[in-house]
Design a protein that fits this description.
266 residues, alpha/beta, Dihydrodipicolinate Reductase, domain 2, 5-stranded parallel beta sheet, 5-stranded mixed beta sheet, 11 helices, 36% helix
């Protein structure tokens, strides 16, 4: 299957590197990026010929599209993939939340949008629990201040994250509210909401913690089938502190699962 990557930042580069090294049944067709200059720079670092295409051409000639672009581009990317009956793998949980109407179109066109696990864990357990009754889901995200300082919510509300000496609660609300307030930072909250009780009912806290050097997430679930907690500490990507290194790897694992004869997990 030919793979096209939209958005060629840290996640897209990680996925491209894995495909170049070799993933059975997949080849890299090309990439699309809003910054051709940045894409060319990253391609040169990979030491491999990768072609850059316009979005339309990339989607038209690929079998699978991987969306690593900013949330604002999600609807256009997803709509074109659905209309051309291409499989879409995305890490934009917040993009899906804002465009739930696309599910009906995807069903009509007999194609699929797949939200990769990204920087969170336990979505299998949440999905299983949601087949019965979930009473409550609470998520607590803690990140170093440098991972949150450029978030629109922080800037718009003039929240000062410089020289913190102790953890600071900067947001408390629902996962859907958090995903809109921090579209590039808490896609994980959107994923937890979509997998479980729903983003509007999922409680979310976001903390800026100067004592951390990793992005951390803790999810607490109370369901009639199980009570469980999940926590993860993600290594930041050097060029984008708000993105965990594991996010790109989860997309690679998702891609492998499309064709794997032996699939682990729900």
């Amino acid at each position: 299957m030919k793979v096209g990557i939209v958005g060629f930042g840290s996640i897209g580069t990680e996925v491209a590197r894995a495909i170049i090294k070799g993933i059975d049944n997949f080849s890299l067709y090309g990439v699309s990026s809003r910054s051709r200059e940045n894409a060319l720079k990253r391609i040169s670092n990979l030491d491999h010929e990768i072609k850059i295409y316009d979005l339309d051409q990339l989607i038209e000639n690929s079998d699978v599209i991987i969306d690593c672009a900013p949330k604002e581009a999600f609807r256009q990317i997803a709509s074109e993939c659905i209309n051309k009956r291409k499989i879409l793998i995305t890490v934009s949980g917040s993009g899906i939340l804002d465009n739930l109407d696309l599910e009906a179109l995807a069903k009509k066109n007999k194609t699929q949008i797949i939200l990769a696990t990204g920087a969170i864990l336990g979505l299998d357990a949440l999905r299983a629990a949601s087949e019965s009754k979930i009473n409550q889901v609470k998520m607590i995200t803690r990140k170093p201040p440098n991972a949150l300082s450029t978030a629109p919510f922080v800037i718009d509300n003039k929240i000062n994250l410089e020289n913190l000496s102790e953890p600071k609660l900067i947001f408390k609300g629902s996962a859907s509210e958090g995903a809109r307030a921090f579209p590039a930072n808490v896609n994980v909250a959107a994923a937890v909401g979509l997998a479980g009780i729903g983003a509007d009912k999922t409680k979310l806290e976001i903390w800026a913690d100067p004592n951390l050097d990793r992005n951390t997430h803790k999810v607490e679930v109370d369901a009639d089938s199980a009570i469980f907690q999940m926590s993860i500490q993600n290594v930041q990507t050097p060029e984008n502190p708000g993105t965990g290194k594991i996010t790109g790897l989860s997309v690679v694992a998702c891609l492998r699962g499309l064709k794997s004869p032996f699939k682990i997990g729900t």
